[in-house]
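dumping this here before i forget
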Amino acid sequence: MNQSLVQKYNIPGPRYTSYPTVPYWNKEGISIADWKETFQKSFSESNQKEGISIYIHLPFCESLCTFCACHKHITKRHEVEEDYIDTLLKEWKLYNDLLLEQPIIKEIHLGGGTPTFFSSANLERLINGIFKYADKAEKYEFSFEGHPNNTTKEQLQNLYNLGFTRVSYGVQDYDETVQKAIHRVQPFENVEKVTRWAREIGYTSISHDLIFGLPHQNLEKVIATIDKTKQLKPDRIAFYSYAHVPWIKGVGQRGFDENDLPKDDEKRVLYEKGKQHLLDAGYVEIGMDHFALPTDTLYKAIANKTIHRNFMGYTANKTQVMIGLGMSAISDSWYAFAQNAKTVKEYTKLVNEGIIPIFRGHLLTDEDLVIRKHILNIMCHFETSWEDEKMQFENMKKHLDLLQEMQADGLVKIENKTLTVPDEARAYVRNVCMAFDVLLQRNKPKTKLFSMTI
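structure:
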């Protein structure tokens, strides 16, 4: 990459799993009445046509990984599982009580935290409880995140029997020094074992999460991790930039000296060389930070232009409605966002009182919806158009003018009311989206809110 461009554009910016981004949601929040209204409206528009997605947040972890920016609850007490699943199913019933017809579920994802903290029997009780009030879509896709150190063959088999065909393992890095710094020590043999088990059982898509920019990483260590990953040939690879945001996540991300982190140009080289290593191994770049083999559904989704991006990241399944169940989970009705209470205690209290447990949210304006479409187009397809007047918004020319310098630098092409991000400029896609981000441009943050873009 042109290192001068990296230095020029490597600024704090959103990852755009939503628009508006969470820091720019309405300060007044969203009323439960408004959230219910938008949810019911969107459900009636989309349930029979495309089904719905469900994200279930399972927050418990036995130990704290210092790279993690997720909402989690650290405990070794597995007796918490029973009450938490009871609460999840009560929350699901609160949503079902709003509906006039049986929901059709197209996608389920179990995230965390550590979903494999939960016993096989409790995971089975959870999924069976969900389908007490729902049907499966004709072409559904269920997935979960597994920790290589505690995922059991029984868990994999039971979830497969329940319809799960995708599993994602958090690998991060195989170097022992890096693993100790991030408090995530897991031998290659553990990852190899759970990957093999999943294949033997019949999982059709296995993903490994890798991170660049971690403490003590250098190019040699990143390439060594990718070489080991290539031996296992997962169907998908997420190759993420470590988001160092200790001012948001607190002590968890300060488990090492910040001087141990690779800086700017050095960090970008880790990505560029790592990316080329993946491409040479037959992987195809999908959106931002994702790679897939041509046989995987994520590749087929981008080839067919059906790929979607939401709070779970990139997905091959677009649905207008996504219900987030569990502590801190975020729901999306397309017309509004709603996030659940961030602690297990408060979340449980609200659900037991019969209240949908949201503590903040955002009701999208007409302008928000137009810009949301543009940012989704750019993040998913690296192009967008405003030839249709419905895709234009107030002061749009002013925002397009913000891209003139990027256009001069060869990072975007704008002609005939269409914007395209060239293949070689995909690393700058977040910067392109920032020009369309009306709320960000109107009120630029005076303190650190986001990780660096490149």
